[in-house]
Amino acid sequence: QVQLVESGGGSVQAGGSLTLSCVFSGDTYTMGWFRQGPGKEREGVAAISRGGTDTYYADSVKGRFTISRDNAKNTLYLHMNTMKAEDTATYYCAARRGIRVDAWDEQRSYAYWGQGTQVTVSS
Description:
By secondary structure, the chain is mainly beta. It has no helices and eleven strands.
């Protein structure tokens, strides 16, 4: 059983930066960050392959956010720069149990989810 624990959320002003971390236990494949803003559906933010060689981003965060993972430390990261008010959301870490051919942001393809961490961006 894989467990995921996010941290690093908080409040930041527009234009600022924040880094989220997700410590994972167990064997994971592709991992991703998803978010759910107030009154919105949960959406994919970014994902990274097991070895870290392939990354995927939502258009809304390309060029501003960077996903990375350190498998030696069992930690997934999301570095967020030039943040906007619309980045305000609860951010979730997720992991796949095995190799999947689904799109990187297909939520049903992720077997494990963290509890979420709140990020608030004030303008």
